[in-house]
Amino acid sequence: MLIEHFAGAFPLWLSPVQVKVIPVAERHQAYAAEVSAKLKAAGFRVEADQRNERMAAKIRDAQLMKIPYMLVVGNREAENGTVSVRLRTGEDRGALPVDEFIAHAQDVRRTKSLNL
Question: In terms of residue numbers, what domain contains 34?
Answer without folding.
Answer: 12-110
